[in-house]
Amino acid sequence: EVQLVESGGGLVQSGGSLRLSCAASGFTFSTYGMNWVRQAPGKGLEWVSYISSISSIINYADSVKGRFTISRDNAKNSLYLQMNSLRDEDTAVYYCARDQFYGLDVWGQGTTVTVSS
Amino acid sequence: QSALTQPASVSGSLGQSITISCTGTSSDVGSYHLVSWYQQHPGKVPKLMIYEGSKRPSGVSNRFSGSKSGNTASLTISGLQAEDEADYYCCSYVGSNIFWVFGGGSKLTVL
């Protein structure tokens, strides 16, 4: 079964850091680009970051550029999101999602990040 | 990069058809055929319903269809069923620097 499982969310103070992980299984992780997408409470989906299969292409939304870092370890079938200088507006459920080039076809269950000031 | 524009809410009666619009610009929707649509039920994970503007992934009902004209993409749901009540998001490829942008989402109510 194709599966993505996020972890690492939690409560953090404003200005703090957190590292999210996404464990992939059931498919050849190293051949797919991956994304992080977030959803603030009661709000819509917001694309956060993309990393290509061999980490040669990395992109960020303007809202997180310079504060968040996406990475992956293909040997461990894992995707990461290092989040620094966290702000209240970063409070959201963070999803990892597989990139099929034409769309995001597999999503994890999400991990909740709460930033308190 | 601004979010794509969707109506906040749409509604339709059981068995009827509805269409949700998604308006972008010549830099996103108008430039690429890579528009996708996602369904999200409350408390659930988004599900890919349409990709490349009009294609359905395996397992998605043929009651769901997509189209695009200029800078606007559309999702049509025919023969509305109670389980179609959900939030729907459009998404477009934006180019190699930004990658993806979502619409603000549309809440579908089935009457």
List strands and helices in order, with pairings.
The complex is a heterodimer of chains A (117) and B (111).
Chain A: E1 3-7, E2 10-13, E3 18-25, E4 33-39, E5 45-51, E6 58-60, E7 68-73, E8 78-83, E9 92-99, E10 104-107, E11 111-116
Parallel strand pairs in A: 2-11
Antiparallel strand pairs in A: 1-3, 3-8, 4-5, 4-9, 5-6, 7-8, 9-10, 9-11
Chain B: E1 9-12, E2 18-23, E3 35-40, E4 47-50, E5 64-69, E6 72-77, E7 86-95, E8 99-102, E9 106-110
Parallel strand pairs in B: 1-9
Antiparallel strand pairs in B: 2-6, 3-4, 3-7, 5-6, 7-8, 7-9
Defining traits:
heterodimer, A: 117 residues, mainly beta, 7-stranded mixed β-sheet, 4-stranded antiparallel β-sheet, B: 111 residues, 6-stranded mixed β-sheet, 3-stranded antiparallel β-sheet
Question: What characterizes the major β-sheet of chain B?
Answer: 6 strands, mixed
Count of DSSP helices of chain B? 0
Through-space gap between termini of chain A: 40 Å
Strand content of chain B: over 45%
The share of residues in helices of chain B is under 10%
Low-confidence runs of at least 5 consecutive residues of chain A: none
- By secondary-structure content and strand pairing, the structural class of chain A works out as mainly beta
Helical residue percent band of chain A: under 10%
Q: What is the N-to-C succession of helices and strands of chain B?
A: EEEEEEEEE
Output the structural class of chain B.
mainly beta
The gyration radius over C-alpha positions of chain B equals 13 Å
What value does the average pLDDT of chain B take? 95
Show unreliable segments of chain B. Answer: none
Strand content of chain A: over 45%
Please tally the β strands of chain B and state the result. 9
Distance between the ends of chain B: 35 Å
Oligomer: heterodimer
Number of helices of chain A: 0
